[in-house]
């Protein structure tokens, strides 16, 4: 049986994981696509 302390700790850890994942996702969304990837996409489009 888990104690209330264990339950609170589990909730705190899950909250921290959620916050960290959200931070990483927001960073990725705001970063621009590197030029080399854009060039590669252009090359792939030309091959069609």
Give a quick precis of the structure.
With 48 residues, the chain is mainly α.
Helix and strand layout, with pairings?
Elements (H helix, E strand, L loop, with lengths): L3 H27 L4 H12 L2
Helix content: over 70%
Given the C-alpha coordinates, what overall shape results?
rod-shaped
Quickly give the structural class. mainly alpha
Number of strands: 0
Poorly predicted sequence stretches spanning 5 or more consecutive residues: none
Topology order in helix (H) and strand (E) letters: HH
What is the radius of gyration computed over CA atoms, rounded to a whole number of angstroms?
A: 21 Å
Distance between the termini: 61 Å
Described by strand count, sense and barrel closure, the largest sheet is:
none
The pLDDT mean sits at 86
β content, as a range?
under 5%
Oligomer: single chain
| Continuous helix count | 2
């Amino acid at each position: 049986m888990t104690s209330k302390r264990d339950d609170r700790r589990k909730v705190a850890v899950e909250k921290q994981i959620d916050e960290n994942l959200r931070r990483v996702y927001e960073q990725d969304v705001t970063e621009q696509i590197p030029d080399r990837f854009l060039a590669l996409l252009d090359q792939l489009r030309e091959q069609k």
